[in-house]
Design a protein that fits this description.
Elements lengths: L1 E3 L7 E8 L2 H6 L5 E7 L4 E8 L6 H21 L9 H22 L3 H8 L2 E8 L3 E7 L2 E5 L2 E5 L13 H5 L11 E7 L5 E5 L3 H6 L17 H4 L2 H4 L3 H9 L19 E8 L3 H6 L1
Parallel strand pairs: 1-3
Antiparallel strand pairs: 2-11, 3-4, 4-5, 5-6, 6-9, 7-8, 7-10, 10-11
Amino acid sequence: MYRVRKEMKNRYELAMGSIIGRGHIRLGINNQDALSVLSCDRFTVAVVCDGCGSGRHSEVGAKIGARLVVETISKFLESNAIVDPCDPKFWQCIHQDILAQLQVFIKAIGGDWQQTLNDYFLFTIIGALITPENTNIFSLGDGVILFNDCLTKLDFSGNAPPYIAYGLKYLREARECPRELQFQIRHSRATEELNSLLIGTDGVEDLIDAAERCLPGRSDKIGSISQFWYDDRYFQNPDKVRRKLSLINREVHQPGKPKEFGLLSDDTTLIVIRKVKNRNSNNQQ
């Protein structure tokens, strides 16, 4: 979901895409990733979510979760209650508000409470909040962050990341969530320092590792992950990122040759944000 009120055209531009992983295609499972973005004159907030692979309907929770995080942050920013995203209390309030909303969803769906949570609402979160003054990159779970070309991989032992819904146990018992079940701020910088940013689900790790491999059925290489913020075409065509990911993950059958399979085994979702180039200076060169 990408909603724009008054785009920050003079500052940053966005590109994004998501595709289903080869493994999920083979198993007949939906894409369990989701993304959501809201950009206005005062801020931009972008979120990617990855549903738990063992959840029967994790794609539902991931889609709800991505939208929920974006809308909750937007609501807090537009109110007069809390105005400083660099204050840890801001993120604590966001966290508690999201938990309360998830609890309402689970109750509305019905059935066994714990089973509904496990089936629908286990998802990771990687997000970015950009205001004119500050940029905060936050997470709860695994994924990938590239801030100004600097890579951060968020991995957890046993491929068992924390999920925000685990905090519902503590909400119901009126206890404070452990630190590992709350939002972690991975970067907090002055926005003027931000040149490019990529946030992605853990499937982006395969995309990074495949840079020197050839596209299925073709001789040209996939290329570095940096193409997604350096190549203008990804920002000129809103479907360009998804199309490139689809090319990387397609199956190719050519007569007399072995079948070639897609190179991204897991669902892969990314959002790229970059500083708008000086169009006038480009035209003068």
